Amino acid sequence: MHRSIATVSLSGTLPEKLEAIAAAGFDGVEIFENDLLYYSGSPREIRQMCQDLGIAITLFQPFRDFEGCRRDRLAKNLDRAERKFDLMQELNTDLVLVCSNVAQDSLSNESMLVDDLSLLAERAHTRGLRIGYEALAWGRHVNTWQQVWSIVHQANHPALGVLLDSFHTLSIKGDPSAIDQIPGDKIFFVQMADAPLLAMDVLEWSRHFRCFPGQGDFDLANFLAPIIRSGYTGPLSLEIFNDGFRAAPPRSTAADGLRSLLYLEEKTRRVLEKDPTPPAALDILFQPPKASRYAGVEFIEFAVDEPQGARLGHWLERLGFSCTGAHRSKAVKLWQQGEINIVLNAEPYSFAHGFFEVHGSSLCATAFRVKDSNAALTRARDFKGQPYRGLVGPNEREIPAVRAPDGSLIYLVEPSQPGQRIYDTDFQLQTNAKTSCGLNSIDHMAMALPAESLDNWVLFYKSLFDFEADDEVVVPDPYGLVKSRAVRSPCSSIRLPLNISESRNTAISKAVSNYRGSGVHHIAFSCDNIFEAVSRAKDAGVPLLEIPLNYYDDLAARLDFEHKFLSELAYYNVLYDRDPQGGELFHVYTEPFEDRFFFEILQRKNNYAGYGAANVAVRLASLAKLRANR
Amino acid sequence: MHRSIATVSLSGTLPEKLEAIAAAGFDGVEIFENDLLYYSGSPREIRQMCQDLGIAITLFQPFRDFEGCRRDRLAKNLDRAERKFDLMQELNTDLVLVCSNVAQDSLSNESMLVDDLSLLAERAHTRGLRIGYEALAWGRHVNTWQQVWSIVHQANHPALGVLLDSFHTLSIKGDPSAIDQIPGDKIFFVQMADAPLLAMDVLEWSRHFRCFPGQGDFDLANFLAPIIRSGYTGPLSLEIFNDGFRAAPPRSTAADGLRSLLYLEEKTRRVLEKDPTPPAALDILFQPPKASRYAGVEFIEFAVDEPQGARLGHWLERLGFSCTGAHRSKAVKLWQQGEINIVLNAEPYSFAHGFFEVHGSSLCATAFRVKDSNAALTRARDFKGQPYRGLVGPNEREIPAVRAPDGSLIYLVEPSQPGQRIYDTDFQLQTNAKTSCGLNSIDHMAMALPAESLDNWVLFYKSLFDFEADDEVVVPDPYGLVKSRAVRSPCSSIRLPLNISESRNTAISKAVSNYRGSGVHHIAFSCDNIFEAVSRAKDAGVPLLEIPLNYYDDLAARLDFEHKFLSELAYYNVLYDRDPQGGELFHVYTEPFEDRFFFEILQRKNNYAGYGAANVAVRLASLAKLRANR
């Protein structure tokens, strides 16, 4: 597939944008007119710049308010077009986007629109140029692809074709399924944009909230599928108006853009493969190895110095973990309980293996249990993930890994028989019969991310691992709002709530500031009996986060709990949530470990699927109080 | 008027909120239930805290999904109410907000709703408590004040009354005019919220975009007027859900809240004074002196050190200003041209008269020409403005002044006869016959503000000076979006565009960061002949901001300009804009002075009223290029 992106999707000056687009691996670029108007170089210089960078100029856009204009303006409008044709020839692009007229006084007569566009197409044709006609969702008279195709079909001019934009169709709940009735060579260009579903004015939505495919809520695969069926083989181009992208560094935005197209192509391929006769053009779509099956978190690894390691070990011990092994060649300890494996790595310079500086203890690696680690790695690499192979000492196994967006490692570990597990080869194991708290597994790991990086992380997990993303949840911290969006493996064996906050003084923002970037926010362990687990942890001296009694008074008012049961909840600071299907969550938080992260112990009943969002506000208020008292 | 605010309107812990509310001068507070649930102290402790701070608890809220609930839940719901009544008695408040049921399965039968609410009212009544019933705009069956009043009227219970919230009526375009038909003593409580007009889901709009009266687009004076006519004398309370307020320091938010109520009361008073028989209750509304007439900017004053003063003076000289005076007792110089007076103050420690530190040359004072400076000062003080009286040396006149939100000074200067002007008394004047550039007056002064402070500034000018605020304009900087909202005196003799940006790397954000807060962004001088003025400035060596030729090629394509005229525009880097009414703007920018601010020279034709928003993007791109090249 020929992959392209509009300059308006990125921040920066025109040269900065073009360099970022080339670096991300795009084949082409749409030049958004304003980027050219505001640039001090000539169109010829821009053409040369693109040529040097190896990207084609796929489109010049937009040309507005032409067809059906007031008759006294038609001649002037044609003059205006000729000026832009001059410019296109200097740029060396043959295609211009003409978007449907939005002027209040524009005319609706369809045969007039056909005539106007034929006239324009003929002018273009004599100069070897072409017109792509697009329906804006808010066009005065033309706002569907069906109208555009009807006009293009009637005009029947070789230089006039259909230009499709997913946003303009899907934002007004248009049906794209019959696009495959258009001959592929009459579709001149395809623009792709996703967006979150927002009940707001379409123009505002379009101008500020578009996002890359996979970051929003549109069903883009079923938009692209009929286009591929039509035989279209032209560029697939991203045209994203997004306030965040306008402010973010262009290189990382462009890289996400390319990844989003690969993601969309794979999803579209899956749709098309279900066709009785898949189209021949299927082969132009990106084809990575299928995602492997994930089966939980095998281990997590913290980078610590020796004293931090000792302090964190002490916390783990009180939480019922046992230190069961020491690494054969490194200053690395293994702590275990149930299926949970926690590695404390105190090797100097080992943190995230030299990728970034240590600022206090941090989660530096997570290992996912995966059925086929090599296929998983190939897929990650195909999606432009950064693979990692570390130093391998004597007796150590090499584990395939890929960098998470923050540079920490995600190991891909295949299940092994007892005796052949990574711990058996790399660690000297010892059996310590300590009292467990009954913690079974890592239920979820919540991350604190810089506000602008959420979409990047979501797309990373969705594409490389084929994870799913839950809807965004907004919860109040006493000092601002927090947004949370969880990604999880298809069977929910791995769950990663990703948290951001645009307010400076929330717990999330403080964590991001402490980490100088993203970092783990809390780690939740599951258990089968919350009161047993918490009681043991409390007895062992684990500092539990205190929940106000007012919270339990409200539970009493709202629910039919017995007084004794409520007292027990309150005594152990256990929070409670219930979903509409009768699922129940019992959960308790610890105080933070050295102002970095904290632990959660939880019990899910009746397939409760969430993370206790109803209780996040009280947890944040209690954390804020704790911080204020220090 | 008894003035109140809901705890949910502010950020922080409950004690932080209560302290801020008391400090701002409110009489009372609505306790939002969640603030209580998340607080570790008991309701009795909160009651004591409020008593110590001298604020009454005016309301406990909300109690949800009661009336018309499924019959099997009614008993449980009454139990839930009794628990909350317990809590109210501990808090020592007698009024609870019951908002209309939103549950999908709630029942619509009006007589049932009357019965349910009568039952609840009777339970409250036996404990000396009262119920305020409110229609949520998104209530399942009840969503207008008319329905609420109908139900309250039928119930005819002394403990059941109407609770009004401006947002819930105005957001769904409800008509408040007949509220005066409700007996005043059947209105138990009034909540006030403004909001910008946004075409979006009402619930989302309500939860994130409410703002204080005067900061949004609602006609609140005509909402409050019929309430006052009804004879209502209870609290006027702010209930604002706003993402920005949730993150801002509670004390400044609370201060704005109180000011917004004063502003609303004055506006409401003006509406009521037009009644043939103004209501007796008119007297409970705030009554400041009427705003004075403003007639332009008398002078602006920069704080500089000696070398900065020399450099800035050199810029002014090239712009056609003459140094016409030296202060009698201070290191202060006067520069003049046309009606423009610029003071360069190089007194050590003089910057903003000790209010904040100097970080490079900054605008430290602005003087408004005003008809009655003492009335203007009284009004400013009544609206909680901070008056200022500086040190007055021999021969110096004392000028009334008030602090702007950033601590700089706004002098209030009455017009004087020649020979008796402030310059005549304070300065030793000299006549320097220099070449003027034909600049007449200060057309506008644009400010760069921290993103979160825009609403504060807008309310400051609207209330203290009775200025008007234009609609917000959004323009793209290459590194993010910029929002601009202009405030201006009623006759537009003083115009102050206020600019913010939520993106870190825009020109506005860089300016805010350079100033370590708000500061002047650019100063625009008007002239009668743009080409004459710019030509002289260019000859004198003023560095004009270079505009790309591509911009003029586009003008050529769009407009019927002669080639020669376009060449002249391009040669002098003059930007052009035209409004739909035929008004025209010609304007040119200088490069920035020491990375701080820049100057603009403009000519308005045919009553062009804007600021050239269409050209801001090209200006920002040119500025960004200039920055990048340094």
UniProtKB/TrEMBL annotation, chains A, B:
Q: Which InterPro entries match?
A: 4OHPhenylPyrv_dOase_C, 4OHPhenylPyrv_dOase_N, DSD, Glyas_Bleomycin-R_OHBP_Dase, Glyas_Fos-R_dOase_dom, IolE/XylAMocC-like, QuiC, VOC_core
User: Does the keyword Metal-binding feature in the UniProt annotation?
Assistant: yes
Which residues hold Mg(2+)?
H444, H522, E600
Q: Where does a divalent metal cation bind?
A: E134, D165, Q191, E239
- Tell me one GO molecular function of this protein: 3-dehydroshikimate dehydratase activity
Q: Which Pfam families match?
A: AP_endonuc_2 (PF01261), Glyoxalase (PF00903), Glyoxalase_5 (PF14696)
Entry keyword set: Dioxygenase, Lyase, Metal-binding, Oxidoreductase, Pyruvate
Q: What is its EC number?
A: 4.2.1.118
TM spans (from-to) = none
State the reactions this protein catalyses: 3-dehydroshikimate = 3,4-dihydroxybenzoate + H2O
Q: Which GO terms describe its biological process?
A: 3,4-dihydroxybenzoate biosynthetic process
Name the needed cofactors: a divalent metal cation
Task: Give a yes or no for keyword Cell wall biogenesis/degradation in this entry.
Answer: no
Q: VOC domain location, by residue? A: 296-415, 441-591
Annotated pathway: Aromatic compound metabolism; 3,4-dihydroxybenzoate biosynthesis
Q: What does this protein do?
A: Catalyzes the conversion of 3-dehydroshikimate to protocatechuate (3,4-dihydroxybenzoate), a common intermediate of quinate and shikimate degradation pathways.
Q: So what family is this one in?
A: Belongs to the bacterial two-domain DSD family.
Q: Matching NCBIfam families, A to Z?
A: DhshikDhtase_QuiC
Q: What is this protein called?
A: 3-dehydroshikimate dehydratase
